[in-house]
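=== RUN LOG ===
request id: a7f3
mode: sequence -> structure
chains: 1
length: 71
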Amino acid sequence: MQSFRFGDRASGILFHLEVTVQHIHRMFEEFAGEVQQENLDPDGILKQGESFLPALQQTGSTVFRRWVELH
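=== RESULT ===
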């Protein structure tokens, strides 16, 4: 995660709080070579992701809502 604040009005955050199961599937398709090269387990990663995604999406929703409320 990366974040910054500049003055009173400028803030930034880089963390993919919007990730869904569909995003994970597409990443495996787009980076199939890297996944294979690194001997990663797509099914294991997806299963783990599915358990974490609901909380991540709830956090993302809160962050994005509060972000909009600031501006």
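=== NOTES ===
DSSP finds three helices and two strands in the chain.
The helical segments are 21-30, 32-37, 42-70.
=== END ===
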